[in-house]
Each structure stands twice: as structure tokens, then as C-alpha cells.
Write a structure and sequence with these properties.
Structural class of chain A: mainly alpha
Largest sheet of chain A: 2 strands, antiparallel
Radius of gyration of chain A: 22 Å
Structural class of chain B: alpha/beta
Strand order of the largest sheet of chain A: 1-2
Strand content of chain B: 15-25%
CATH topology of the largest domain in chain B: D-Maltodextrin-Binding Protein, domain 2
Number of strands of chain A: 2
Oligomer: heterodimer
Largest interface: A-B, 68 and 62 residues
Order of helices and strands of chain B: HEHEHEHEHEHEHEHEEHHEH
CATH class of the largest domain in chain B: Alpha Beta
Distance between the termini of chain A: 66 Å
Low-confidence stretches of chain B: 1-30
Number of domains of chain A: 1
Low-confidence stretches of chain A: 230-238
CATH architecture of the largest domain in chain B: 3-Layer(aba) Sandwich
Helix content of chain B: 40-55%
Helix content of chain A: over 70%
Distance between the termini of chain B: 64 Å
Strand content of chain A: under 5%
Mean pLDDT of chain B: 86
């Protein structure tokens, strides 16, 4: 392995390849900031360029840089304007945007940068050591386990709900699940709930819904409430106070990053689970195991709440290279596009790749590490300038947010209907916000819904019924975990209440 | 400072626009230009199979100087129906437009996803295709097509066939055709739908399903890597890209199937224009630029012009329609 490592190092550390990593990261970061252009579309745009390079190692290094840059850039719009352009950065906005509202946008971006860097780096090291072993782990999960994993993901929604909001959160989750059933699915030969409207054939777009739930209501709120751009303590949120993270904060997020990098990586290894699930679960797990006083901070601007999903989604992106490189199976849409590029470059990913073309295998892994390092070095100095976007006067900022929101919904599909849907849902979402219903569970339900349904139906079909729950111990284990996740918060608060009452009695 | 930040954003947006349109950069014609310009209408989003076909074809045509310039428009919606409707409604102003499409136009008009069918359009040419294949795990007990049928006959519920399309979609229909031709009951076949080719292969390798129905080109790399075994290709003869894979025909199974991709124009297109497009596409096959694009994407040249294309589509519609009736989808 050491030999391979050296070979990879010597391949990656050429002037040209380092230039490629830097270029790729820059392109990825800046385009990734635009909602609507996720890693998948950016890589698709870059593939013809990468292929003209010809040398597979160099091309892959460029694409890996773009990939990481895009994942990282995606979190920027989540944090700054509450517009998550990629599903895997939805969880980042839960605490990232509240931090921005408190004038701590710089801090949120710094935490995100460091968490992303650590997640990606730890992921790359795990990939380096365990990739060959993990190939078989990736195949342990059957449809029934994926179904159970989605149940775990949904049950974690209790973690996203504030006190006394669990019922509302569940209601919104179901609404999200229902919305996910619109259109042509994987399971049926017919479209469902489209009311005969051809534009609903392929269902609601993720970006459209994400913009409608998060960014648009925020912009409407800004218009309705002129004081909203001021922070709670009267200061202007364009002031960038607290760019750096304090020693205490660093100490508190270090274990979060360490845990979520490993957990995120392992979830990323599973084909079909991916960075989105990793980020939600990362957020939920960290909230559940946090001490009571810190737990209350989640959703209101906790640095842990930014660090957890950001380290998890980056580690998961790295993890998704395991099935790609060792089995030749793309675990996500993005790696499917990368697989196409690899084949076009005459590289066949699979178990033989490490043996036949070790320089490519190792160069990719080294370039991941390099990509993360370059990202951190590029982005930390840029953060104050990026955060300054918010210093724009309201009459510039609001149209700017609206423009990015509308463009994000339109750009992927080139379909004007998305704009109508966006406005319609945006108005509904604003009403929900006035009524104090949480919107995040709706979006999570919408994202996880198809995965939940498809895997459940496949498992039912394969086992001719519900037998898979008993016949597959791992499924049962995950479902038990889901129950624990639902029950634990209410058990905890009941115990806390009991203890408080006990104190009162003693008086 | 503020203004500076805005201009940075603007430059960024301009950069994106440049990157996107840059792909469609017109090439200088060098004397043998056949068509001035073609506007490609893509019924799906960026990055899909239709998108790649249109952009690849446009790249080869302009690169070789057969076409002066190419532009592209993604119009998704209605499983492709929106673009078809647009082309028919605005036929007179779309004589410069070619729409890309593929096998699903046949399947989706049969199932009524959209009211039109290929007869409502001007058929230009089928240009490329991919054969279908049945694939099993390399180290599994099933070694050939007959082995799969035997396993199915012994335990129909325990022999699931996976695929990347919906029930009644292409992968399901191909597997059903093979089962029917082998004398097994296609209705009893347990077809398990996955979300795309990658997930299907993961399902096969994890042992969840015993065989999968997929595109030949999607299976070739994994077969070369020794992970899966292709037990039958729906081509008339063995395909050069992977000679080890036997055809269905040579195993006594009369299944032939091509997932084609091709181009359509607005109804009422003048004959001289149609001839011009067909001429450009025919000449394209001789060029190095096309060969580079074709090889990069792993496409197989399957060229059917005008009337041949029509016969081919009518035959495919017949075969698929009959099978879907039998399976209860129509």
C-alpha cells in the first residue's frame, strides 16, 4: 500500500495536476454557490473539458476538485440566504442561517469550511485504508435495510422539532411524503396525482421545493418586516462580528466533526444512501446526544448544528467513491456521471482498477486530500468577502435573493412551470411560517419519501410480504434504532421534568 | 465595496453562461457544409441520455463542418410530451429544429403518457442504439440463459429479475420478451424495479435479485471486470465491444431488441429540408469527429433513414404493444 501511496503522490504532485486541483476547486466553489447548479450539473458541464485533457489521472483530479468545490460552495448559499441548492446542504441551513441572522455569517462559514475540510480529509484517509475491505460492506445492504435506514432518517425528524412541536413536525413530514408521490415514480407505470397536467409528470423538483420552503419565505419576510435585517440585539447583521471561532467552540465541535466524519463516510459507502441522509442523520444524532442546554441551541444557531451536517456530507461524498472505485457501481447521481467520464477515458473502475492501474486509483485518493486542503486555503481568506454580500442595502439584497431563487428553480429543467410552482408553494410556505409550522420536516419528508417508498415496495416484493422485518436482523436492528430515536427525546424531557418536580417537592 | 461584490456575482453568472454556451461553439465550415444551422430540441433536462445524444451529435456535425452551427434547448416535462406538443403546435416556425428521442416515445405513446405518437412528426433518422442484455452475478449458480429459465421454472418467486425502468418500461419488457420466447410465463416473472442502472447492478451484486435486464453498454465494463456475466444480448450477432457475450439468438431464443435514439422534425417539413438533414446525418458517420464522440459515449451506430426508420418504429410498436397487452399494461 505504501508503494501505491508513493505512486499516487508522485502522480498527483506535478505542476499540472496541482493547477487542476486549484482550478477545479475554484470553479466548483463559485458555480456551486448558485442554487440550482449542484455538483451533478457542474461535473456534467466539465466532462467534455476533462476528456480533452486526455490523461485520466489529470482529468479525474480536475473532476474531483470540481466535485468537492461544488459540495462546499453549496453550503454557502444555505448559510447566507437560506437557499440550499443541493439536498445535502439542507441540514446546514437549519443552524447556518440563524447564525447569519445573528450577524455571525462569517463564523458559520468558517465552521462549515473547517468541518467540510475535516470531513473530507478524514473520509479520504478512511478511503485510503479501508476501501478494499468496504467494497463488501457496500453490498451488505438490501432494499429492506435501505427502507429501515430511511425510517431512521425520518424518525430523526423529532430532532428537528422544537419543544411542543413534535406533532406539527410529524404533520409536515407527512405532507412532504405526500408531495413526493406526485408524478411518475420508479414503481408504477403510471403517473400519480398529476391532475392530468403534463408538467407534473416528473413530479415536483427538489430545487423548486427547497427554494419555496426556505429562501422565498425568507425574502418575503424581509419585505414584510423592514426591521428583520437587523439582528435581535438591534445591530445590523451585515456587520461581521465574530469571524473566528473561539477556543471553547473549537473544543465543542471537534468531537462532533470526528464522529460525523466517520458516520458520514460509512453512510456514503452505501450505494443509494449518500450525502443527504448522512447530513440529516449527522444533525439528528448530534442533537440527540448533546447536553440539554446545548440541545436547545440547535435550530437557533448552534455551531455544532453547522459542523455536524457539513462534516457528514463531505465525508459521505468521499465514501461514495468506495463503490465507484472498487465495484464500478455509482452510489449517487454524481458518481454515475463520474463513472461515465471514467469509461470515456478508458478507465474501467472495479476490483481490477487497483491492480491494473494503481497510479489512477491512488492519484484520485491523493487528489481528494489535496482538493480538501486547497479548498480550505482558498476559502478561509475569502469568507469575509463572501459574507459581505449581506452588507448590501435591502433594496439590492432582496431582488438579489429573489433572482437567485427563481433562477435556481428554472435553470435545471428550463421549464417555466417550475417558476409558477415555486411562487405557489412559496406563498403556502409563508403562511405555514406565520402559523409557526416548521418547514424543514416537509422538505426532509419530500427528499426521503421516494427512497422510503421504493425500497419498502422492493422489499415487500422480494419477500412476498412483510417477512423481511423478521428475516433480516439488520433491518430489525435499524427499525429498533428508529423507535429509540423517536422515544428518546420525550423520555429525556419527561425525566428532566420529573427531576425538576422532585426538586420542587424537596423545597 | 457593495458594487464590487455584485460585479463579482455577475461575472460568475456570466462565466456559467459562457461555460454552457461554450459547449455549443460553432466551428468554421470548411467547404462541404450541408446545413447552415440546426436547433436541437431536447425533451429532458441537462445531463440525461437525450441531452448527451443531441449535444454529441451537434458537436460532431459542427466539428466536421457538415453543419455551420448548432444550438440546444432543453424542454423537459410530461415524459417528453411537452417538447413533442411544442414541435407540433409550432410546426411552421420550427423547420430548423431537430428533436432527439428514443424507444420511450413508442412506449409512452402506447401507455398514453402523451396523446401524440411518432406518426405525428416527420421522421428524420435513427442514429444510434444500444442492445439490451440479461446479466447475472459472475460467481452465481446461473451460467447461461437456459440456467436462468430453469431456475425460474424451479422457483419462480425466488428468481427475481431487476431492472432500471418502471414495470412496463423497457427493461421489464425486454426481460419479458426473453422469457416469453423461452416458453416461460412472462406474467409470472417477478420484475423488481430500481432507480437507474447503478442501483440495479448493486441489487444484483448484493444478491437481492438473481438477474437483471439492462443496457448492453452499461453491463460491458462490469463484465470485463469479472463481476457480472452477460448471459444474453438482444443483438443479431455478437457485439464487437465484448465478444464473450453470447446473443439470445445463438441460445435458441428469438429475441431481438434495439434501444434506439434518433431525430424527429416538425410535421410538414419540406422534402428538400428533410433530405438535407438526412444527408448531413448520413455523412456524419464517415467523420473522425463522430467516431470520437461515439467511442467516448460507447454508442453503437445503428442508422435508419426516413422510411426504414418508419418501418423499424412500426415493428417495434407492434412487438411492444402486443407484449404490454399480454402483461396487462394496456
Amino acid at each position: 500500500m505504501l508503494e501505491g501511496l508513493l505512486l499516487g503522490l508522485s502522480t498527483a504532485f506535478t505542476f499540472q495536476n496541482i493547477l487542476m486541483v486549484i482550478g477545479g476547486c475554484l470553479i466548483g466553489t463559485f458555480i456551486g454557490m448558485l442554487p440550482g447548479l449542484g455538483p451533478m450539473s457542474i461535473i456534467a458541464i466539465m466532462i467534455p473539458i476533462a476528456i480533452t485533457i486526455g490523461d485520466p489521472a489529470t482529468a479525474l483530479i480536475l473532476l474531483a476538485g470540481v466535485y468537492y468545490g461544488a459540495v462546499f460552495g453549496g453550503s454557502t448559499s444555505s448559510i447566507l440566504i437560506n437557499a440550499p441548492g443541493v439536498a445535502s446542504t439542507v441540514a446546514t441551513s437549519f443552524d447556518g442561517y440563524p447564525l447569519t441572522r445573528q450577524g455571525k455569517a462569517g463564523k458559520a462559514l468558517t465552521v462549515a469550511a473547517i468541518a467540510s475540510f475535516s470531513g473530507g480529509t478524514i473520509g479520504a484517509i478512511l478511503l485510503l485504508i479501508f476501501a478494499p475491505m468496504l467494497a463488501s460492506v457496500a453490498l451488505l445492504f438490501h432494499s429492506s435495510e435501505y427502507f429501515a435506514l430511511m425510517v431512521v432518517g425520518l424518525s430523526a425528524i423529532a430532532a428537528f422539532a422544537g419543544t411542543g412541536q413534535v406533532a406539527k413536525a410529524l404533520l409536515m413530514t407527512f405532507l412532504g411524503l405526500i408531495m413526493a408521490t406526485v408524478g411518475e415514480g420508479v414503481l408504477f407505470n403510471a403517473a400519480r396525482f398529476t391532475l392530468g397536467i403534463p408538467d407534473l409528470q416528473s413530479g415536483f423538483g427538489f430545487i423548486t421545493l427547497a427554494m419555496a420552503m426556505f429562501a422565498l419565505p425568507e425574502a418575503i419576510y424581509l419585505i414584510l418586516d423592514p426591521n428583520r435585517s437587523k439582528t435581535a440585539d438591534g445591530g445590523d447583521n451585515s456587520e461581521i462580528k465574530e469571524l473566528r471561532i473561539s477556543r471553547d467552540e473549537a473544543k465543542s465541535i471537534a468531537p462532533v466533526i470526528a464522529r460525523q466524519s466517520v458516520q458520514g463516510f460509512l453512510i456514503g459507502v452505501l450505494p443509494g444512501a449518500g450525502a443527504t441522509i448522512a447530513s440529516f442523520l449527522g444533525y439528528a444524532v448530534e442533537r440527540n446526544i448533546a447536553p440539554k442546554d446545548e440541545q436547545d441551541q440547535f435550530g437557533k444557531g448552534s455551531v455544532k448544528g453547522v459542523a455536524a451536517p457539513e462534516s457528514a456530507n463531505n465525508a459521505a461524498c468521499t465514501g461514495s467513491f468506495v463503490p465507484l472505485l472498487t465495484l464500478g457501481i455509482p452510489g449517487s447521481g454524481t458518481t454515475a456521471i463520474l463513472l461515465g467520464a471514467l469509461i470515456a477515458l478508458n478507465v474501467s473502475p472495479g476490483p481490477r482498477l487497483m491492480v491494473d492501474e494503481p497510479q489512477i486509483f491512488w492519484a484520485v485518493i491523493i487528489s481528494m486530500y489535496l482538493g480538501n486542503l486547497v479548498l480550505l486555503m482558498l476559502n478561509l481568506p475569502l469568507i469575509p468577502y463572501i459574507a459581505k454580500v449581506l452588507a448590501a442595502p435591502r433594496n439590492f439584497l432582496i431582488p438579489f435573493i429573489l433572482f437567485f431563487t427563481l433562477m435556481g428553480a428554472y435553470i435545471g429543467q428550463n421549464n417555466a412551470t417550475e417558476l409558477l410552482l415555486l411562487v405557489g408553494f412559496g406563498i403556502c410556505a409563508t403562511i405555514f411560517r406565520f402559523a409557526d409550522y416548521p418547514l424543514a420536516p416537509l422538505l426532509i419528508g419530500f427528499i426521503l419519501g421516494p427512497l422510503l417508498e421504493n425500497n419498502f415496495a422492493r422489499a415487500m416484493q422480494l419477500y412476498d410480504g412483510m417477512g423481511f422485518i423478521w428475516e433480516r436482523p439488520m433491518t430489525l436492528g435499524l427499525l429498533v434504532l428508529a423507535v429509540v430515536l423517536v422515544v428518546l427525546p420525550s423520555y429525556r424531557s419527561r425525566r428532566a421534568r420529573a427531576r425538576a418536580e422532585g426538586v420542587a417537592d424537596g423545597d | 465595496m457593495t458594487i464590487l461584490n455584485f460585479s463579482r456575482r455577475t461575472i460568475m453568472a456570466a462565466g456559467v453562461a459562457l461555460a454552457v454556451t461554450g459547449l455549443a461553439a460553432p466551428a468554421v465550415a470548411d467547404g462541404h457544409q450541408v446545413v447552415d444551422s440546426i436547433h436541437f430540441l431536447i425533451p429532458g433536462g441537462a445531463g440525461g441520455g437525450w441531452d448527451g445524444t443531441a449535444r454529441g451529435t451537434g458537436e460532431a456535425l459542427t466539428g466536421a463542418g457538415l453543419v455551420g452551427s448548432a444550438s440546444y434547448e432543453n424542454m423537459s416535462g410530461g415524459g417528453g410530451g411537452k417538447a413533442i406538443g411544442y414541435l407540433i403546435e409550432n410546426a411552421d416556425s420550427n423547420h430548423g429544429t431537430l428533436m432527439v428521442n428514443s424507444t420511450p416515445i413508442v412506449i409512452r405513446s402506447l401507455t398514453g403518457v402523451f396523446p401524440q405518437n411518432f406518426r405525428d412528426l416527420t421522421l428524420v433518422a435513427g442514429t444510434i442504439g444500444d442492445y439490451a442484455a440479461l446479466v447475472v452475478a459472475a460467481d452465481g449458480p446461473i451460467k447461461d440463459l437456459n440456467g436462468l429459465i430453469e431456475a425460474f421454472n424451479a422457483d419462480s418467486s425466488g428468481t427475481a429479475v431487476g431492472g432500471g425502468s418502471v414495470p412496463g418500461g423497457m427493461d421489464h419488457l425486454v426481460a419479458a420478451m426473453v422469457f416469453q420466447a423461452a416458453g416461460a410465463d412472462p406474467v409470472a416473472m417477478k420484475y423488481v424495479p430500481y432507480d437507474g442502472g447503478g442501483a440495479t447492478m448493486a441489487g444484483l451484486l448484493s444478491g437481492e435479485v438473481q438477474a437483471v435486464s439492462t443496457g448492453f453498454s452499461e453491463a460491458v465494463e462490469l463484465a470485463k471486470a469479472g463481476e457480472v456475466r452477460i448471459i444474453g444480448v438482444t443483438s443479431p450477432e455478437r457485439v464487437d465491444a465484448y465478444k464473450d457475450a453470447p446473443t439470445m439468438l445463438e441460445q435458441g431464443n428469438a429475441t431481438e431488441f434495439v434501444n434506439w435514439r434518433g431525430f424527429f422534425a416538425a410535421p410538414g417539413l419540406p422534402a428538400d429540408k428533410l433530405a438535407m438533414y438526412q444527408d448531413a446525418l448520413t455523412k456524419m458517420y464517415e467523420t473522425d469527429e463522430w467516431e470520437a464522440v461515439r467511442a467516448r459515449n460507447g454508442w453503437v451506430n445503428i442508422h435508419n433513414n426516413g422510411d426504414d426508420f418508419k418501418k423499424f418504429l412500426e415493428n417495434q410498436e407492434q412487438v411492444i404493444g402486443d407484449l404490454m397487452k399480454q402483461l396487462g399494461f394496456l
